[in-house]
Amino acid sequence: MNLRKFVVFFIVFSLLSYYYFHHELSNRNAENQKEEQERKVFARGSDEDITSISLEYDGKEFILQKEAEADWFLIKPVQDKADTFIANNIVSTIRMGQRVRTLDNTDFDFSAIGLLPPSMRIGIRFGEKRRFLLLGDETYVGANRYARWEDSDEVFLVDKRFYDVFKKDLYTLRNKNIFSFNANNIDELHVALSEESIILKRIDDDKKNEWWVMKPFENRASETVLNGYLRDVSRIMANSFYDDKKVDDAELGFSIDKNYIYVKDTNGDDTLFIGARTSDNKNNYAYLKSKEKVLAIAADIVDSLKKDSDEFIDKRIYPFRTDQITHIAYYKGERKVVFNKVDALWRSVQETNEGENVKEDTIKFDNDCEDLLRFYAELTYESILNQETIHSLELSTDDILFQIECIPETNDEEAIIFSLYAKQDSYIVKENKDPNFFLITPEKYHELNTLLKNIL
């Protein structure tokens, strides 16, 4: 074969290959996709958004409607928010459900196979159209059910589990979540589940963004405890709904001024009122103001949400950001030791005694100084001393063992000074910005002593 014939043969072969791969295979793929689409139960209109579903079986009718981009609502038999996961699962089954096979026989007695009347009637609204899928009896052979579209006499088989996806009771279809909020957006929380009423508020200004207990006293709140509490509140679920009961029914035990949880966020507020125990003693009646519905929540959940105000308190004496501190000073009598942060490293040590310079060095104390700062930033107290106790102890400056001064980088911020007192086998801390005296445990004192030995 000469070169010219080879070139011609190669060109012809390339053109035929191109035709086969880009035309025949693409046509075959299109046919396969068409066959796959036709095997689906919901073949027509499957590309359009499904906006409404109705379920009719056993004399019951449920209607779900898509109100927003992702939210589903129950329209019938009650009006309430639907369980989005369940609704989306139903939609997914409608879109992806496959026919097992289409029956060739066109002369069916629909009543003999449970299609007249049907065992279940499923209404699907898509775009401007609405179709009804009818499910009949189970087949005698194979795990299937008879099915057909109401506007067609064509009968086909679907997996019998197809029926189970749609057979949902009212409780299953409803949204069981009580509150729907983002904890980061909560501004205020009221807890009135015991003898005292507790009010917590987020203080957000130029100087700080933190939670405070505002009632029955004012104190910084523990964000760890509060975040855990908000998480537990967000997870409260309705165990049942009582659409026929009224909130003013005396036996339900609701009170307007006690036994409630109030939540306020950037989008609004809501209140969950807790009532009496149900007859089985496993649940409490509850009433959500926004839904205006009586429901039941687990009694053990209610008990876990009962907290005293002390449990919300942040017991850190004075939390601060350790990364903003660039100088640490240790005072004991006439002795003063200063640690300076240079180029993000704790290196310099200056020590004076009775006003005279004793030592100046550049020893590295990075980890030790950072550990000391973290200790003070997280230092918790055992109790706050009342005035009577302070008076009986006769505390004075002579009882100060030492002081630690934490100096921020900018002059705008006031230095933080922790004074440690020792009196009658008790260790007491006073911070210069707080009027209170705090009792700390001996274990905290010994931990502090160990940290100081590493740098002094």
Report the span from N to C terminus: 96 Å
* Low-confidence runs of at least 5 consecutive residues: 30-34
Overall geometry: elongated
Structural class: alpha+beta
What is the highest CATH level, the class of the largest domain?
A: Mainly Beta
CATH-assigned fold name of the largest domain: Immunoglobulin-like
Task: Output mean pLDDT.
Answer: 87
How many strands?
Answer: 27
Percent helix, as a range, is: 10-25%
Number of domains: 4
Topology readout:
Layout: H1 3-39, E1 50-57, E2 60-66, E3 72-76, E4 80-81, H2 84-96, E5 101-102, E6 120-126, E7 129-138, E8 144-149, E9 156-159, H3 161-166, H4 170-173, E10 186-192, E11 198-204, E12 209-215, E13 219-220, H5 223-234, E14 240-242, E15 260-265, E16 268-277, E17 283-288, E18 293-298, H6 299-304, E19 325-332, E20 335-342, E21 345-353, E22 356-361, H7 366-377, E23 383-384, H8 387-393, E24 400-408, E25 416-423, E26 426-431, E27 437-440, H9 442-453
Detailed description of the structure:
With 456 residues, this protein is of the alpha+beta class. The protein has 4 domains: 1-39; 50-173, no CATH class; 183-312, no CATH class; 322-453, Immunoglobulin-like. Helices cover 24% and strands 36% of the residues. It has a 9-stranded antiparallel β-sheet with strand order 4-3-2-1-6-7-8-9-5. Strands 13-12-11-10-15-16-17-18-14 form a 9-stranded antiparallel β-sheet. The model is unreliable at 30-34 (pLDDT under 50).
